[in-house]
Amino acid sequence: MGHEIRKHMAFVDGDEILNGDVEVDETYIGGKAVGKRGRGADNKTILFGMLDRDGDVVVQVVPNAKGSTLKPIICENVEEGSTIHSDEWLGYRGIDKEGFEHMTCSHGEKRYSINGSHVNTLEGFWGRLKQSIGGTHTHVSEKHLEKYANEFGYRYNYRLRPDQMMPELLSTFRPLPQA
Fold first, then answer.
1. Checking CA distances to 131, which of 28, 67, 96, 139 falls within 20 to 30 Å?
2. 155-159: average pLDDT
3. Secondary element (H or E) of residue 173
């Protein structure tokens, strides 16, 4: 039942086209593993997120963090002419050639905000998502991670209008086809 509700939250939320100042970042979800942390760590699932500083967040599971994977997702979900804010990850290099302004901050140099460019809002979203998974569910399998991430995205997107969440979910509920 919980998975059906999460799928319905994603359906109701939809994914509006983001515009203006949009933060992009990826995070790695999975248990603690010995060895490499972050990018390149084994047994981790990659979540990619885009957050409109004036609005919503869009999250999805991706197979890798290569530019050939991330840039088409950005182009599909962010209005041309918007400003993309990212860290210095090579996967974002060249996004300005797709019709976006591109500004970066340098996490490698421990400079997390440079001239108004940061991904701090999205990093905060990732932190709350990970806390929620760890505190409520202990573990979420790769198979179901996108549903949990979409539920959290729905709650984030409705954070300024919580009184609309329950009525909207109930008024539009219909069973979705099995995936």
1. 67
2. 86
3. none
| Cβ proximity of 123 and 25 under 8 Å | yes
Mean pLDDT, to the nearest integer, of 67-90? 95
Contacts of 74 (CB under 8 A, 6+ apart): 24, 50, 84, 95, 98, 100
pLDDT digit string (tens) for 110-147? Answer: 666 667 778 889 999 999 888 887 767 666 778 878 88
Look up the CATH number of the domain holding residue 160.
3.30.420.10
Whether pTM exceeds 0.85: no
| CA distance readout (Å), 170 to 1, 5, 12, 75, 129 | 14, 10, 10, 33, 24
Query: Structural domain of residue 70, as residue ranges?
Result: 2-32+41-166
Give long-range contacts, CB 8 A cutoff, 24+ apart: 132-137. Answer: 133/29
The size of the chain, in residues, is 179
Express the helix, strand and coil content of the chain in percent, nearest 5 each: 45, 20, 35
pLDDT of 11 higher than 80: no
